[in-house]
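Limitations
The C-alpha cells in this dataset are predictions for the assembled complex, not deposited experimental models. Users should treat interface geometry with appropriate caution, especially where small molecules or nucleic acid strands are included. An illustrative entry is reproduced here so readers can see what is and is not provided.
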Amino acid sequence: VIEMGQAEQSVVTTCAYCGVGCGFKAETKGNQVVRMVPWKDGQANHGHSCVKGRFAWGYATHPDRITTPMIRKSIQDPWQPVSWDEALSYAASEFKRIQAQYGRGAVGGITSSRCTNEETYLVQKLVRAAFGNNNVDTCARVCHSPTGYGLKQTLGESAGTQTFDSVLQADVVMVIGANPTDGHPVFGSQLKRRLREGARLIVVDPRGIDLVKSPHIRADYHLKLLPGTNVAILDALAHVVVTEGLVDETFVAERCEADSFAAWRDFVALPENSPESLEATIGVPAEQVRGAARLFAEAGNAAIYYGLGVTEHSQGSTAVMGIANLAMATGNIGRLGVGVNPLRGQNNVQGSCDMGSFPHELPGYRHVSDAATRTLFEGEWGVQIDPEPGLRIPNMFEAALDGSFKGLYCEGEDIVQSDPNTQHVQAALSAMECLVVQDIFLNETAKFAHVFLPGSSFLEKDGTFTNAERRISMVRKVMPPLGGKADWEVTVALANALGYPMDYGHPSEIMDEIARLTPTFHGVSYDRIEQLGSIQWPCNEAQPDGTPIMHVDAFVRGKGRFMVTRYIPTDERVNQRFPLLLTTGRILSQYNVGAQTRRTPNVEWHGEDRIELHPHDAEERGIREGDWVGVASRAGETVLRATITERVQPGVVYTTFHFPESGANVITTDNSDWATNCPEYKVTAVQVVQVDQP
Ligand code: SF4
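Predicted assembly:
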C-alpha cells in the first residue's frame, strides 16, 4: 500500500463521491494529502478519474471542519464545546430519558450512503440492539429505494446485474433518466468509447443531456418525454415489442414465469398502451417510440442504464419494474453487454442498502418479520429484535410533528438540504427533544441539533464502499481523524454509553461479523479483498471470487417475474398558477448538496445553481440570460439565476441542487413513490417570474 515517490507516501483508497467507486492513490506529505492520482489497477476505473475525484481532498482539512464535540440544551442556545465522554453520555442520557417518557419507538437513526459499509452496519445495529426498535433508515430512501424494491420483485435481488466493463460488449444502450457524463463521469467516458466504436444509443430524458449530441456521438433516438411519464413510455416500448413479435420467446420460456409473462403481455398489448394512444401523454411522436423499441429489441446485446430520473417519481418502483420487464422480454439479462444497471449517485448507496439500514430489512435484504433471520442476528448480538418494521425517514418527520418521535441519531446526512419540502423537515426537527448530528461540517441539519459529534472524512478511516456494480473496495486511512475518532468508533462509543456493549479493534472485525451473518457476504473479508483487489458480491462458497454478472443461468428468485406496470399520472399537475414542470439533476463539478465540493475548488468549479428555461418560456416572461427569477411551487419559493437554453423543452424547467442558498428542495413537494416513499423530486409544478437581485 505504501510507496515512496515524490510524496512521502501514497495510500490506495476509493473515491468518496459517486457510485462508480474509482480507485485512487492519495499522496501525502506528513498528514497532508498533496495529490490524488487515479489508480491504474482500480477495477472500476482502470486508471481514469473525473475532476471531482482528482480534487477530492480539499474539503477534508477545510477551516469549516468541526473537530470538537458540542452540546446545547436548546437550539436557541450557543454551542458548548465538551469532551467526547461528556457529549456521548449527554446524548445517551437524553435518548434514554425520551424512551422512558415517550416509549421505545420514540427514537431512531439515519445513516448515509457516504459512510462506509462498516459504519452503516453499526448504526443499524445500534438502533436495533441499543434502542430496541427498527427505526433506522438511510439516505438511499430518497434516491434508489425503488431500485431495491423493483429489482427484488422482478429479478430477486436488489442490485444491478452487470459489471461496468460490460458496456463494452453492448450493441445498443438505452440511457433512461440518467446523465452519466455529469453524474458518473468515468462510466460516462467508457460508454462514450463504446458509442464511438459504433454502438447505437437511445436516450430517454426530458432534457437534452450531453450524450444526445456531443463530438462524434449522436443518439439514434432522443425520446424527449414529459417529466412524470416514464411508466407510460416503458409501456409503449413494451407494446411494440409484444405486438410486433419482438419478444425473445426462448429466453422467456426457459427463464421466466409463464403466468406473470402472459398477464404482462396481455396488459401491454392493450390498444391504450400503444405509442399512438400514449403520444399526447408522453409528448414523443409515436414513430420515434416504435423505432427505439425495434432498435432495442433487435440488438444482439442491449443494455439499460438508468438513474434518479427513473426512481424519484410517484411511480419510481413501477418504472424500475418496467425496465426489468423490457430486459427480460427481449432476453437481455445474464451475460456481458446487457442487463439492468442502476447508476447509483453516491459512493455507497448499494452498500448502505446491503447493510440493513432499512426499517424493514436486516443486512442482506432479509425482512425483520422472518423469525429465522432474527434468531441468527439475536444469537450474534445477544438481544431480542423487534419483528415489526420501523419508521421510514418521512414517517419519522410525521411522527415528530404528531409528538410521538422525539430523538434522532443522524450520521453523515444533511436531511434539511437533501430531503424534499425543506420547511416540513425543519418543522419536524424543531419538534424533537434530542437531535444528534455526526458530521464533518456544521451542516443545515446541525442548526436544529442538540449534540454535535465530529465525523471523519473518507481519508481518516479504514473501511469499505460498495459501488453500483456491487464491487466492495477498500477505503484506507490516509491521516488520523481530525476529531480524534473515526465514525465507526463514535457509534461504538455511543452504543456503549447507551448500555449496549460493542467492542471492535478494527473495521475488519465488523466486516467479519457482516460476513458471518449475511449469505451473500460469506466469502468477504479484508484479506480476500486485498488478494483480489475488490470483490463483487455475492461472494460465498458458491462464488468464492465474487460475481461480475448476475442471473446467468437462473434468476436469483428462480424464474424472472413480470410485473404489470399500469401508468398512473402523478398528482403534481400544471395549472394556471403553476404552469411549468420543474425537474432536477447534477452538474459535473459538484456533488449532491455540495458540502464537500463547495469546499474544494477545482478546475471546473461552478459557484451556483441555475434554472434552465426554454427560449419560448423565457420570452413569454421577459426573462433574459442571467436574470434573477423567482421560482414558486405549492411547497415554497426560491430565487435562482436563469439560463436560456433549448436543452429543455417548452413547458419544462430544470435546476441542480448543490447549493443551500438556492435550496431546490424548498420547492419540491411531499409526493413520493407508492412503494418506498422515495420523493418525487423530478416533477414539481412551478411558476417562474423575473425578480430583482436578492
Ligand atoms: Fe470516479 Fe465518480 Fe469519483 Fe469521479 S466522482 S472520480 S467518476 S468515483
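Some entries come with short summary sentences. For this one: The chain has 22 helices and 28 strands.
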